[in-house]
Specification:
The chain is an alpha/beta fold. The protein folds into three domains: 2-69, Archaeosine Trna-guanine Transglycosylase, Chain: A, domain 4, CATH 2.30.130; 78-179, Transcription Regulator spoIIAA; 203-403, Rossmann fold, CATH 3.40.50.150. Helices cover 26% and strands 28% of the residues. The chain contains ten helices and 19 strands. The chain has helices at 12-15, 78-95, 130-133, 136-147, 207-214, 232-239, 252-262, 276-285, 307-323, 342-355, and strands spanning 2-5, 20-22, 40-45, 51-57, 63-69, 100-105, 114-119, 122-127, 151-155, 170-175, 180-185, 188-193, 222-226, 244-249, 268-273, 290-295, 325-335, 361-367, 385-390. The strands form four sheets. The chain has a seven-stranded mixed sheet, with helices on both faces. Strands 1-3-4-5-2 form a five-stranded mixed sheet, with no helix packed on it.
Length: 404
Amino acid sequence: METLYLKKGEDRRIRSGHLWVFSNEIDISRSPLAAFSPGQPAHLADSGGRMLGTAYVNPASLIAARIVSRRQDEPLDAGLLRRRLADALALRERLYDRPFWRLCHGEGDFLPGLVADRHGSHLVCQVTTAGMDAQTDALLNVLDELLHPASILLDNDIPARDLEGLPRFQKAASGAVPEEAGIEENGVRYAVPLASGQKTGWFYDQRLNRAAFARLAAPGCSVLDAFCYAGGFGTLAARNGAGSVTFLDASAHALGYARRNAEPFCRDVETLQGDALELLAGLRRQGRTFDMVCLDPPAFIKRKKDAKQGQEAYARVNELGMDLVAPGGILMTCSCSHHLQEDALRAIAARAAGKRRRHARLIFRGFQGPDHPVHPAMPETAYLKAFLFQFPRQDALADHPVFH
């Protein structure tokens, strides 16, 4: 293997455990990036020649190298995939009784470039980097060996591949991929779309946050599940006794699944399809309120340069959501933007409550579930934040001195 050398001082972050090497950290006079092909394995060394591990390289990407091992000669191959995936599988089987979870969460499972979800006997995988893409055949063989799935969907029609110079596509890599799968979460069975679904079919990262939200569902309460996809939050609240559920999403296809999932538990199911902000504003104009509101929007901040605009979008969503919470009600607000820190989301919610002159109690802080492990040296892998607020029945702040 060729050696990729870092500039002087650029090894500190790597020695602390981070797995990414950026192109501006590489000493291109000693190891020209142009000499490497996308996905090529390489030794990684500091400026003094001391070995830091084994990585794979993509000269066309801002993240020019991703470390796969701290050992000097352990490239990404079938053997490493088998060991890492077997370890990831063992952890999930300790965490969960039923086979419905994220099997591999990229850097969190020490396999950069791979996301894989298990929906019972069906797997959905996304390969996002050139180095992992080069090992696709080995990956499929290892997955078949470890799990014997009925099908594997390779869902590579994703923007992340653009950054690596990889083509987008979706294909059945193994077996006959069904239109949908039945999954179980928090004691509820959901139907979820596979090839036509969002991301890898289901957002397992919200499992614990759905449970925290739904356990507060009082018998007969009304629920608004905004940005609902297949209805994870609202359906679980209905199972716990909610009397009515309103699902709101841009996708009519997703809303069909939300209705199907909730109707076994609730007779009063409403679906609203369209732009979320416009629909939320419309509900406010109608004077409607709900005992429980969940806001689980897509990532509004996908790049650092979008931070200001994205924070404004989160602020608008939270203000509209709070307008729809009845006195004594519950609001869950979430963000999956890793560029938005937890304190920033909490501050956005606090400002929204202040603008709406409402008292708010923060009663729960949520994160991604343990099948989406966080790499402790990589804050980028801790992306999901969720807060549960309760608004007392006597919550008007009009006479509070801070508003005068």
